[in-house]
Amino acid sequence: MGKAIAVLREVRLEKLKKLKELGINPYPSKIELSGEIATTKEASEKLDLEVLTAGRVWSIREHGAVVFVDITDETGKIQALFQKKSLEEKFDTLQLVDIGDFLAVKGKVIKTQAGQITIDVSEFQILSKAIRPLPDDWSGLKDTEDRYRKRYLDLLFNPEVRKRFDTRTILIKEVRRYLDNLGYWEVETPTLQSLYGGANAKPFKTHLNALDIDMYLRIADELYLKRLITGGYGKVYEICKDFRNEGVDLTHNPEFTMIEYYSAYSDYQKVMDVTEGLFKHLAKAIFGDTTLQVGEHSVDVGKNWPRIKMTDLLKERLKLDVSKESQESLTKYCMENGVEILGGETKGQLIFMIFDHKITRDLIEPTWVMDYPKDVSPLSKDKPNEKGVVERFEGYIGGKEICDGWSELTDPQEQRQRFETDKKVVRSDKEEAQQVDEDFIEAMEYGMPPIGGIGIGIDRLTMFFTNTWSIKEVVLYPTMRPLNENLGKKRGENT
């Protein structure tokens, strides 16, 4: 704590002590003043009427026997006028009030000579004494790391941050509204799982003492949602927290929020239809329009999105016909064109890596990229008459990958083979491989209808609709290294 802050804190602690000596509870459980509490916005619209409102003290201006105080809440700000002639001995209590404290004020709404809407205070109550001063109002809170660690201050001082998180809340609401109207059931599946699956990711591992078994935090909810289709549900979705023990960067946080939805008797074409409609619905709900800014580009999500095969994009953009290439020639292409590889990748892996590194950033207009290599899609159904290709798609807008879905594999024998193959493919961390989930395969053996499904990151969706391309800006409390170096260092209990 800085010396200046420490001094100010001591001053406030002394004021706190004086309040208690006066018999004033600086942290009451409720507002004792009579009347319905109005927001500052509501109060400002009630000229010549008596109102009761409450909020945080944002500024104090003393003029002898008159004190002006600005009071804020989430709806806005209103000025309160405290006059010694009307408040008498209680007026002196204002000397113990500081910026940052919470007050309730009651009085008539007037307009000052300067034309400002003001509450002429007849009664007031201290609701909370702040013993730490807020950052300077002029400079605000600018240090990025401080903003993430002290999000409560970030929200107070940076209105655009609050607006961004309000947009996130609206997005989640509207996603639910859209899917509910299409007949999807919202469900809940386990966060603690005995076996992880549904994605290629390294899990967080923990131990359940009650049963003396190792457990994993969910990396995806796909396999549980598809079990529900076996159980008779026609359409299901879940908005949930997933956890992946991987890197932290501009677009990845170890804890993140996903929406996954699945429908029986659908294929990937139908899922693209539903998802394209979702983006159009969200754009209209948030902006009232389908044109929005993505990075430096203005894009219209309201038109029909083209559906293009990955191999056609490679041929068109890179003059690379992968049907005529071998694993060896694609490996050579990667090495000569700056596509980083580990060595030993399959042909399908190489095709995907070339696409991902060389094409995606140029997909500006809303585009569905379809028909992915089987080697990188262990849960997707084979494309009829196209060996090594599956019915998988990704949505790209403004050079950003927005969502990922497919026609779900429903053949239990094929699924077992895919799981086993995925454990053998080349990757930097073997824990990222899909595990052989016997319980899921058993559920498939009872019969699973054709299914189409998709997963969309809510964080990435928020980044997209706020044009904010850092995940820490759209997660209220992003994962960060503790300031206390002793925290988080004990190993062996959670890894």
UniProtKB/TrEMBL annotation:
Entry's cofactor comment: Binds 3 Mg(2+) ions per subunit.
Keywords assigned: Aminoacyl-tRNA synthetase, ATP-binding, Cytoplasm, Ligase, Magnesium, Metal-binding, Nucleotide-binding, Protein biosynthesis
Record-level GO BP terms: lysyl-tRNA aminoacylation
Coiled-coil segments: none
Pfam families: tRNA-synt_2, tRNA_anti-codon
InterPro entries the record matches: Aa-tRNA-synt_II, aa-tRNA-synth_II, aa-tRNA-synth_II/BPL/LPL, Lys-tRNA-ligase_II, Lys-tRNA-ligase_II_N, Lys-tRNA-synth_II_C, NA-bd_OB-fold, NA-bd_OB_tRNA
GO molecular-function term, one example from the UniProt record: magnesium ion binding
Named cofactor requirement(s): Mg(2+)
Domain Aminoacyl-transfer RNA synthetases class-II family profile, chain residue ranges per copy: 171-482
Residues the record lists as binding Mg(2+) 1: 394, 401
Entry keyword Magnesium: yes
Entry-linked HAMAP family: Lys_tRNA_synth_class2
Protein name: Lysine--tRNA ligase
Organism: Candidatus Woesebacteria bacterium GW2011_GWB1_39_10
